[in-house]
Each structure stands twice: as C-alpha cells, then as structure tokens.
Specification:
258 residues, mainly alpha, 11 helices, 79% helix
Length: 258
C-alpha cells in the first residue's frame, strides 16, 4: 500500500511538471510576443532544472547539508536570472523574431528537464542501488518509465495542439509512437520483443513518410532499436538526440513574432 501511495504521489508531481513544460512550449509557439516572454520561458525551464538537481543532491544524501546545497542552487540560479532581467528589461521588452539558437536552446533545456525528471523520480522510486555508478545511473534514468512516459505525454500534447490548429507535422508522429513503446523500459521478454517490433515498424513508417533530415533520423533510430538487446545505451543516446530535433522542428516554424 505504501508503494502504491508513493507511486501515486510521484505521478501527481510528474503530472504538474509535464503541464508546466507543455504550457511553456505552447506559449513559445503561439502566445509569446517579446523577448521578455521568451526570457520567462527560459526562466521556467532553468528553474525546473535546478529544482531537479537540488532534489537529486538531497536524494543521494538526505542530510541537512545536502538540503542546504539544494536550496543554494535553486536560489542562486533564480537570482542570476532575475538580475539579468532587471539589467536588460528594456531590450527584452522589444518585439522581435526568435533565432534558431533560441529554439535549439529551448529544445535542449526541455530534454534536459526530461532527463533530470527521469533521474529524480527513478531515484525516488527505485532507490539508490540503481545509481551506484555514472553508467548505471544513466542507464536507469534513460530506460525508466519516469523518463519516457512524461516525455511521450509532452510530445503528444504539443502534437495535438498543432493538429487542432492545423499545423501538425505528420513526420513527427511515428516518434511519439516509438517513445510509447521503448524496448528498454520494462524488463520482461514479452514487452522487449514486441516493442522492438512495434518501434522498428514505426521507424520504417517514419522513413517512408518523411523527407530530408527526418528520413535519416528514423533510419538511425531503426538501427538503434535493433541494438537494444546488446547495447541499450545506443538507443538511449539516439532518442535524446531525436527529442532535441523533435522540439526544434516543432517550434522553429512558429517562433517568429511581430
């Protein structure tokens, strides 16, 4: 019963985090008009990153010192960002077009949030024994349902928003399916083999229905899926890169403001 309650609480917190990220990226796509709005998008994502880092520090070693370190990290990052805002307020208030560097940075920050969310919730859920080394920590994080399914929900939510606004990019949809059936997320044979087949077929559909860079993205993803039984870290790295490209491609055509 305690395990169920803990899982429910973690799921509830994760839902809030997902909603914040989705709304932030939705705002970048459709609502933000100035650099001030863009700044606050960066602010939200960076604050979430520092929050997850603080939580990880505390969960690794739950002491008063680690709690103080977590608070310092959060407060220091917030102070730096606010000072920057006050010093550049007039410049940021101007309307302009967002550059590709803005969008790629937002994409990287979003994926970093998802990775740290996966690490934090996995550590809270599974315990420190799965984080005994850097390699096992990375494997646990990137092969956890706490990484994949919040990410998938964010992707699907933003895709549905675009679909309702008639801006959906069909070449992105297979990637949502692949993150729904990652072969590495559950450790039993029925899931592993069936999800390899499903994800591989989805990659082939992506290759068929895509052009230019996304055709190569799905080709590399398909190859990485076949390596999951022997070397899952390859699939993990490819998925992380895919996600950065997903958000960049999703946001880049809608980021210009007048």
């Amino acid at each position: 019963m305690k395990r169920i309650n803990e899982f429910f609480l973690l799921s509830l917190i994760a839902t809030v985090m997902i909603a914040v990220i989705v709304y932030t990226l939705y705002s970048v796509s459709y609502k933000i008009k100035t650099y001030v709005g863009l700044f606050f998008s960066f602010f939200v994502l960076i604050m979430m990153i520092t929050m997850f880092l603080g939580a990880l520090i505390y969960l690794f070693s739950p002491t008063n010192i680690s709690l103080a370190e977590a608070i310092i990290i959060n407060n220091a990052s917030m102070l730096i960002l606010l000072v920057y805002l006050f010093l550049n307020g007039k410049k940021l208030a101007k309307s302009s077009s967002f550059s590709s560097s803005h969008i790629i940075t937002l994409s990287v920050l979003t994926v970093l949030n998802e990775i740290l969310m996966g690490a934090t919730f996995s550590l809270a859920d599974f315990g420190i024994k799965f984080f005994s080394s850097l390699y096992t920590s990375v494997l646990t994080t990137l092969n956890s349902y706490w990484f994949f399914y919040p990410m998938m929900i964010e992707m699907l939510s933003l895709y549905l928003v675009d679909y309702l606004k008639r801006n959906a990019k069909k070449e992105l949809f297979p990637l949502i399916g692949i993150t729904t059936f990652p072969p590495t997320v559950f450790n039993f044979s029925q899931w592993i083999y069936s999800s390899i087949v499903i994800s591989f077929v989805l990659s082939l559909l992506g290759i068929i229905n895509s052009k230019n860079v996304w055709r190569y993205v799905y080709l590399i993803t398909a190859i990485s899926i076949l390596t999951t039984l022997l070397l899952p870290i390859i699939f993990d790295i490819v998925i992380v890169i895919d996600m950065v490209l997903y958000y960049f491609y999703l946001l880049r055509h809608k980021s210009k403001v007048s």
